[in-house]
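Late entry, written up from scratch paper. The run itself happened at the end of the previous shift, but nothing got recorded in the book at the time, so transcribing now.
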Amino acid sequence: MKSLFKSLLQLPRDERGGEVIEYALILGLIVIAAVATITAFGTKVLARWTSVNDSL
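Output as recorded:
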């Protein structure tokens, strides 16, 4: 029980893996931005392609 308590006290001071979390957050933000962009412009692009296809 003491070792578990000791491990829990050392956890906030442990800096291993901090960079991985930062990169994961950045990647998550990039993915969210990409999905938002595709959602916003997807219908317009589809309409343009349909227009081009109908012209041919």
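DSSP finds two helices and no strands in the chain.
(Scratch paper discarded after transcription.)
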